[in-house]
Amino acid sequence: MRMSYYPGCSMESIAVSYAKSLLAAAEALGLRLEEIPDWNCCGASIASGVAGGFVQQVLVARNLALAEEMKQDVLVACSSCYLNLATANLRLQEDSVYAGRVNKALAVGGLHYSGSVRVKRAIDVMLGEIGPGRIEGRVQVPLKGLKVAGYVGCQTMRAHPGDFDQAESPKALDRLIRALGAENVNFARQTTCCGSSHVVPASEVVTGQVKEILASAVEAGADIIVTLCPLCQLNLETHQEKVNEKFGTGYEIPVLFFTQLMAYAFGLPPNTWGFEHMLVSPKMPAPASA
Amino acid sequence: MEMAAEVSGSKNEGFVNDLASRLGALPYGKFSTRCLQCGLCATSCPTCEVMDYSPQRLFAVIKEGRENDVLGANTMWMCTSCYSCKVICPYGIAIADMMHDLKYLAIRTGKCESAQAQFYLSFWREVYLRGRSFETGVLFGFYRRRGRTGLKEALGRRRLGFKMLSRKRISLIPPRSVKDPEALQRIITKAKIMQNRGEV
User: What Gene Ontology terms describe what this protein does at the molecular function level (chain A) (predicted)?
Assistant: First the structure.
C-alpha cells in the first residue's frame, strides 16, 4: 500500500522523532509513505490571522494540487496541518464556485486542483485502514506493564467532529496503545488544550494548561504520556520544568509520539525510535529475550 | 459537508452595523450576527479567564457595534484554536475560525502591538519568504520585534534553546525552502488581490 505524505514544517524540526518513527512504523506495516514534492507550509493556525482566510486556503490548496498529481490519498500526522488540509479540501470539493476562485489564484503558478484527493490523519490510517489486528500481529516487544496516558489534545479530533473518532471522548489512541500491549490509563485531561502556540508569546498560559494535563495523567498512574501532535508534545515535554518551578511539583514524565511506541514495540532498529531527540528519556519494557 | 452549508446559509442574517458588515465580508465573519448568548463557548474555553471579553461577551460587543473595543480586545489573540467552542456551539457557529477573521481585521486596522500579533507577523514572514516555517527564524524575528522585552524573554529561554539544539530539535540553519519561493509569492499576491477585491 502506498500513500502520499504531507510532513509539514514541525516534522523536520521539533517533531523529527515523529517523522522518523512514523515512516519506519508505516513501512513495517507494509505502508510506503511518499513525500509530496515541494510541499509548502499549511499556515498553521496563524496565516489566516495575518494574510486572511482566503490566502491561507490557497496556500493549502497548492499542496492538494501537488498531491493530486501523485494520484494517492494523503496522510497527515500534525494535527494543525490536518485541520488545514482537511478543511480546505472539504470546501474545495463541495463548493465549486469557491474552488474556481482558488484555482484562479493557483493558475498563476501553473497549478490546478480538481478535488480528487482524500486527506487522512495518521492515526485514522493506522487504525481504520491497517487495523488494530495487523498492528497487534506486528508487535515483537509487547509493552507489557507500561501505563500510557494517551493525550489526544484539541484539534486532532475536533477538526471535523465525528468523521473518525468522538470529539468529546476519543477512543482511537487508547485502542492503539492496547494493540501494542501497553495499558491505557483513563485521565480527565485527555482532550484539554495544551496552550498551543502561546508557547512563544504568552508561555504562562501553556504552563497553566500543561500543569493540569500532567497532574491528571500522573494521578491516573501513567508512566508515560503519548500524543499525536507536534505542538502538544513540545509543550507537555518542555514545560515540565516551568511547571515544577511555579507549582513546586516534581514532574519528569516522558512524552512520546504514538509512532515512537510503535517503532519500539515492532522491534525496529533504535535509530527509528527517535528517543535521542527527547528531553526526558523513556524507560521502556525490555524485550523478553534480553 | 458542514462548512459550505454553514457559510452559504448564514449570509446577511441578523442585525446590521458597520463592524458586522466588515466582518461579514470575511470567510467566517458572517457568524458574528448569529449568537444565541447561551454561554457554552465561554464555559468550554481554556483561556476564557485571561480574555478581555469571553467569546460569548465578544458577540454581544459586536452587536453593540463597538468596533474599537472589539478589535482592541485580546480575546481573539488569547484563543488557542482548540475548537472546543465550535464543537459545543448549539448553533454550529465556527467561533474559533471567526477569531482568525477578527485577528486579520485587527491587524488590518493597525492593532498589532500585542505579543501574539508580533508573533503572527514574524511567523508569516518566514512562510512568505521561504514557503516553510523555520522555528529559530520565527523566534529571532519575534524577539527582535519585541525589542528590550524580547531580549529579556530570549535570555530567559536560552537554557531550553540550547537543550533543543543539542537534541537536534531546532537548528540555527534554515531547512530547505520550497524550490521557487517567488512562484509561491506570486500565487499569494494573486490571492491577496482577489481577497481585497472581495472576490472570495
Answer: oxidoreductase activity
Q: Which has the higher per-residue pLDDT, B24 or A163?
A: B24
Residue A231 is part of which domain span? 140-277
* pLDDT for the residue B1: 37
Hey, which residues 100-129 in chain B have their CB within 8 Å of chain A?
Answer: 100-101, 103-104, 107, 114-116, 118-121, 123-124, 127-128
Residue B66 falls in which region: left (phi positive, over 0), alpha (psi -120 to 50) or beta: beta
Of A45, A201, A279, Cβ closest to residue B81: A45
Could you tell me which CATH class the domain B2-108 is placed in? mainly alpha
Contact A40 B184 (CB under 8 A): yes
E strands, chain A, in order: 2-6, 32-35, 74-76, 119-121, 147-151, 183-184, 224-227, 255-257
Task: Report the mean per-residue pLDDT for chain A.
Answer: 96
Q: What is the CATH number of the domain that holds A267?
A: 3.40.50.11810
| pLDDT category of residue A155 using cuts at 50, 70 and 90 | confident
Query: In chain B, which residue's Cα lies nearest the Cα of A80?
Result: B81
Which CATH number characterizes residue A36's domain? 1.20.1050.140
Closest residue of chain A to B172, computed from CA coordinates: A13
One domain, residues A8 and A70 = yes
Instruction: Answer whether residue A279 shows pLDDT above 70.
Output: yes
- Tally the domains of chain A: 2
Q: What is the pLDDT of residue B111?
A: 95
Are A190 and A151 in contact by the 8 Å Cβ rule? The answer is yes
Q: Least CB-CB distance to B192: which of A55, A195, A197?
A: A55
Q: Phi and psi dihedrals of A85, rounded to 5?
A: -65, -45
pLDDT digits (tens, 9 = 90+) for A14-32: 999 999 999 999 999 999 9
Does A107 share its domain with A169?
Answer: no
Q: Which residue of B has its CA nearest to A189?
A: B46
Distance (Å, rounded) from C-alpha A236 to C-alpha A185? 17
Stretch(es) of chain B classified as CATH 1.10.1060.10: 2-108
* Sign of the C-alpha dihedral computed for residues A131, A136, A140 and A142 taken in this order: positive
